[in-house]
Amino acid sequence: MKVAARSAGEIAMAVRSRSATATQVVSLTLDRIEAVNPAINAFVDIFKARAMSAAEDVDARIAKGENLPLAGVPVALKDNMCLGPDLHAPGDTRGYGGRTTCASRILENYRSPFTATAAQRLIEAGAVIVGKTNLDEFAMGSSTEWSIFGPTRNPWDTERVAGGSSGGSAAAVAAGLVPLALGSDTGGSIRQPASHCGVVGVKPTYGRVSRYGLAAFASSLDQIGPMGATVADAALALEVLCGHDPLDSTSAPRAVPAWSAELGRPVEALRLGVPKQARGAGVQPEVTAALDRAVEALRGAGGKFVEVDLPLTDEGIAAYYIIAPAEASSNLARFDGVRYGRRAALGPGEGLFELYCKSRGEGFGDEVRRRIMLGTHVLSAGYHDAYYTTAQKVRRRVLDDFSRAFAACDVIVMPAAPGPAFGIGEKLNDPLAMYLEDVFTVGVNLAGLPGVTVPAGFVSEAGRDLPVGVQIIAPAFEEGVMLRAAAMLERALALPRRNPVIS
Length: 503
Ligand code: GLN
Hints:
By secondary structure, the protein is of the alpha/beta class. It has a domain at 3-261: Amidase signature (AS) domain (Amidase signature (AS) enzymes, Alpha-Beta Complex). Helices cover 39% and strands 15% of the residues. The chain has 16 helices and 13 strands. The chain has helices spanning 8-16, 22-40, 48-63, 117-124, 167-174, 191-197, 231-241, 259-262, 285-300, 313-331, 352-363, 366-379, 385-408, 431-436, 442-447, 479-493; strands spanning 43-46, 74-78, 128-133, 153-154, 157-161, 180-185, 200-203, 223-228, 271-275, 304-308, 411-415, 451-461, 464-473. An 11-stranded mixed β-sheet has the order 1-3-2-6-8-7-12-13-11-9-10, with helices on both faces. β4 (153-154) and β5 (157-161) form a beta hairpin. α9 crosses α16 (479-493). The protein starts with 7 loop residues before the first helix and ends in a 10-residue tail after the last helix. The site of glutamine has 14 residues, from β6.
C-alpha cells in the first residue's frame, strides 16, 4: 500500500475493514518520514517505538470491535502541544511523553506531565501520533524560520519557506508524510502555511477546539485546527477535535455536527462575498488570479458574487500586532527560570534578578523578545490607552465589519496570504514585511471566526511551481457552511492531485 497517496479517510476505512493494519500503515509512514524529513525539516521529533506500540494498540482495539473514525491514521502534532506520559488509550499505560519545546531554547528539555485535549481526542479516535512538527518559536512568526531547530523547507521548493508558524505541519502533509497534522492559529498560522504548501488548513471558531495543553501565545486569539490534503480529511479530523472540554474555560458547549457527512451537499444559492481589499496594494497578481479562478469556479457551481467591504483590513494588522504581543508578554511571564524551562547558571554574588534576566535572555530568541518588549510597552502605564485600548476598539470594529459583510453573503472568499511562499531568509531581517504576510488572516482571529484555506492551483516562479490557496471565512460556529463551500470549491476546481518532487 502506498501510504503517501492515501487520505486519512481511506486509511481509516482500510484499517477498520482490516484490509490493512495500523501497524503496517505506521511502519510505512515512519520509513517515509525518515527518508524525506532531512530535506524539509518538518519533524523535530519522530516517535518510532512509541508510534509502533500505539499502532499495535489500535489494531487490538479494532480486533475488539471498536469503531474508530481515525483508525490507524498517522498524525503529526505541532510542537507547542503537550503529550504527557499519562494514559492515552484504554489499557495503554505507556503513553507518548517526549518533549514539548515550542521550538524554544527555554523549553528545550521540557517534558509535560499532561496531554493536550486535542491530542487525546485524536488518540481516542484511533489516530497514531508519529511525531512533533517544527514551528516558529512559541508560534510567533510566518515562516517557521524562528526555530531552534532551523527552518522548515517548502516541499515544492526547498529554497523557500513553508510559511508559519505551523510550517512543519503544513510541509509534513504537503510532502505526503502524514495525511493529517495539527496546527495552531493565532493570526494565520494554520491558513498561511496551508496556502504556501498547497494543503487544506482549518482555523475553527474561537472556542470550538479545546486549547488545554497548547502553550499559550495570545489567549484571546489562539485556536488549534487540522491540516490535511483534502477538505474531507480536514472535516473528519475537525469532528474528532471539536466539543466542550471542562479543562478549557473558553471551550464552547456546542454540539458538533457530522460535517463530513454533509460535504457532498452544495450550499444552495451560495452568496460569495469578496472584499474589495482582496485586490489591494501589496497583493501579488498571481494571488489575485488564483482568487479570480476560485470565484469563477464557485460561480460555475451556482454561487453568486457579492462585493463586500472590510475597510479595516490594514488597521486590523496594526491592532493584532498590539493585542497579540500584549497577551504574549503576559503569557510568557511564567518562563522565569524557576518553575519550568531553562535555568541560567549564576555567577558569584548574582541573585534572583540575575536569574530572571539571564534565564529569559538566554532562553528566548530574537522574535519572541521583540514581542515581549512590544507587549510590555503597549501595556505600560501611560501607553496603555494609546495603544492597547485603541487596538481593542479596532478589534471590535473589525468584528462589526465582518458582521455587516455577512448580512450580504454566506461566506467570504479572499486570499490567505498576499503572495506565494517566499525565499528562506528573505524577510527574516524585516519584521514589518514578515508581519504583512498576515494581512488577510488576522481579522478572522480578531473576530473569532472560522476560516479555511483551500488549494487553488499553482503559480510559476523562477521555474518552480508553487501552490497558492484561497481562504473561505464563515460566521462564528458556521463551520458546516464553510466546509461545504470549501468542498464545492475543491470539486469545482478539480485540481489533479500532485505530489512535490523533493530533491
Ligand atoms: N504570523 C502571526 C504572528 O507572527 C501569526 C502567528 C500565529 O498564528 N501563531 O503572530
